[in-house]
From TrEMBL:
Top-level taxon: Eukaryota
Assigned keywords, A-Z: Hydrolase
Organism: Glycine max
Pfam families (alphabetical): Abhydrolase_6
Name this protein carries in UniProt: AB hydrolase-1 domain-containing protein
Entry's family note: Belongs to the AB hydrolase superfamily.
Gene: LOC100809424
Domain AB hydrolase-1: 20-257
Molecular function as annotated in GO: hydrolase activity
PANTHER family hit by this protein: ESTERASE-RELATED
One annotated GO biological process: response to karrikin
Length: 272
């Protein structure tokens, strides 16, 4: 493997010729897809990787300038695909990685046959005639709590994000990957994500998009899925799942896996 693939802990599974790239969100790593992967490996070439800054990556590779914008992560993704000589893929992006995939697809639409966006948001902050779910004061308090006592913050944030108590297996799993992040890097990454505004790029997306959203998600109001649908430049479809939490692939795999498999196999044209 090349430098980018090694730095991002790339794993390639399955004998298939059609590629599926699975990309995780903040506070997790590629293990967040553990319930889905077994259903894909017989038929696809599955590519898993860790975003720089995840607790499984070498913190020495984290570039505080490059990774202060989502464009830096999109460049990482394109570097991985280039090294692996991927000619086209289905990209499944959770949370921030949905927007990372969208950015990458704008510069290289030829590499993506479709984008599957799970729990995605182009902007987390409320704005005029836009409800992202957070006020700036909310985010400032979140950042201050992370900086003051990262471990305590993780204990409080994990149940809120997942939608369960600390006894839940999914909450414990998310807590583990959150804890694995270096606190100063986690703070930078969270600022980059929560202060981002990708609304202006949505119209530039030319790759078909499948937008999948939980009914209740503390980070992404359900109405955001419709906002994405209305503003993405390409054809898109939306499915809202009867699940709670920002990491439904961990907390409700029995509901989410059939939905993901359907959208991986489904062409938008067939829904017309």
């Amino acid at each position: 493997m090349g430098i980018a693939a090694e730095a991002h802990n790339v794993k390639i599974l399955g004998p298939g010729t059609e590629c599926i790239v699975l990309a995780h969100g903040f506070g997790t790593d590629q293990s967040v897809w553990k319930h889905l992967v077994p259903y894909l490996v017989d038929d696809y070439r599955v590519i898993l990787y860790d975003n720089m800054g995840a607790g499984t990556t070498n913190p020495d590779y984290f570039d505080f300038e490059r990774h202060s914008s989502l464009e830096g992560y999109a460049s990482d993704l394109l570097a991985i695909l280039e090294e692996l000589q991927v000619e086209s893929c289905i990209f499944v992006g959770h949370s921030v990685s949905a927007m990372i995939g969208a950015i990458a697809s704008i510069s290289r639409p030829d590499l993506f046959t479709k984008l599957i966006m799970v729990s995605a948001s182009p902007r987390y902050l409320n704005d005029v005639e836009y409800y992202g779910g957070f006020e700036q004061e909310d985010l400032n308090q979140l950042f201050d709590a992370m900086a003051a006592n990262y471990k305590a913050w993780c204990y409080g944030f994990a149940p809120l994000a997942v939608g369960g108590d600390m006894e839940s297996v999914a909450v414990q799993e998310f807590s583990r990957t959150l804890f694995n992040m270096r606190p100063d890097i986690a703070l930078i990454v969270s600022r980059t994500i929560f202060q981002s505004d990708m609304r202006q790029i949505l119209s530039l997306v030319s790759v078909p998009c499948h937008i999948i959203q939980a009914e209740k998600d503390m980070a992404v109001p359900v109405m955001i899925s419709e906002y994405l649908h209305q503003h993405i430049g390409a054809e898109s479809i939306v499915e809202v799942m009867a699940t709670d939490g920002h990491l439904p692939q961990l907390s409700s795999p029995d509901i989410v896996i059939p939905v993901l498999l359907k959208h991986i196999q489904l062409d938008i044209e067939s829904r017309r």
